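Form 7-S
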Amino acid sequence: MNENYLKRMKEYLGCEYNAFLSSYNETPVRSLRVNKVSEEEIFKNLNIKLEKIPYDKSGYYVLDDGKYGNSVYHHLGAIYFQEPSAMMPVNTYNFRGDEVVLDLCASPGGKSSQILERIPEGILVSNEISNKRAKVLFGNLERMGFKNAIITNENPTNLAKTLPNFFDVILVDAPCSGEGMMRKDEDARKMWSQDNINLCALRDKDILDEAIKMLKKDGILIYSTCTFAKEEDEDIVNYLIDKYQMEILPTQDILKKYTKEGFVKETLRFYPHIARGEGQFMAVLKKMTETNGKYRVNKKEKRDKDEEVVYKFIKDNLNSCELNIVKRKNRFYHLSSNVDLGNLNVLNYGIELGEVVNGRFIPFHHFFKALGPYFNNVLELNINDKRVLSYLHGEEIKADVKNGYGVIKIGDLYLGGFKATNGVLKNHYPKGLRNQNLFEYND
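Output:
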């Protein structure tokens, strides 16, 4: 590792430095979060060794090296692999449950999925500037069946022009020099330089200048990085306080047991010699001032004939499901919010429903995942049923269900859709997700 980096960390940590340095010789910790499934059930079927993470309600340390990304639980959206320190920023703030939230630098989606668990009555705009990473973000949130996330592929400046004074809470998990990832990321060690730190700090100020425009007065900003550099951490907090008169707030008490207070009061630093995980910095701030600007709301749109086809499909196949349907670029979506997103590049407006081809509605995977609870035709399977693996391979399966469209349900989650004809279920699992190397389960 770079000698200048080590010298600086010794200055930061003093008598704790040797313990910090020794942590680099330890194996990085694996962890996951569970979604609508119990630890007991996962252990029973996967024989995975888990230990509860005390500061996240659904987080667990993984105590073995199994490849569980090939499990049915992954396809179900029942598990999401996320580094333990990365679970902490969302836990700095106690969400009410109905907030309008922006995750500004969101891919691959771990923190977005944490937020969505906490705002069942709210709305999340989950943004990623890279188109490739934005598609990964959509895939992860789709897999977990969320229906109240708008996914954008934009730069912060365009977002701020469209959504001024719109958000109750904004998370900026800022792109950084990655010092906290050095134990597990050789590239972060090789690329370390003071010039890169300075460049990241300047970029993060630009990102935050735009984020502040989108935050309501009295709104909450959660700022986090995975680096130890003051220039990207406490100096940025001081920048926000000095330029925008923001007020720094205390975080939730449980986090203080697993962190060290930063060089600004109430900020938190997660170090690998203090708790299990990599490096993280966190701060929660409140916006005290007004910002000029007003967002626009969509006008009610007239239904076209294709939209009538979508509504008929929903009436025929779903029970008591009210959707706010719009057509965008020949695809149909359920709108999570009526805010006018203007010319933003939007990957998903809430639920990606499907498309109409030759007068017939073709439902997409997100339709089945998010609206599974409303389907009339449901095939409930045990996770050990051999038909589950056949389905995920892309094969037709047989079951005694009504003719028509339906969903496969396992526990409290929905795997995907089918169209049944006389007991034969045509597979609607996306070809790109089908997997021939699935993890076999205990009987």
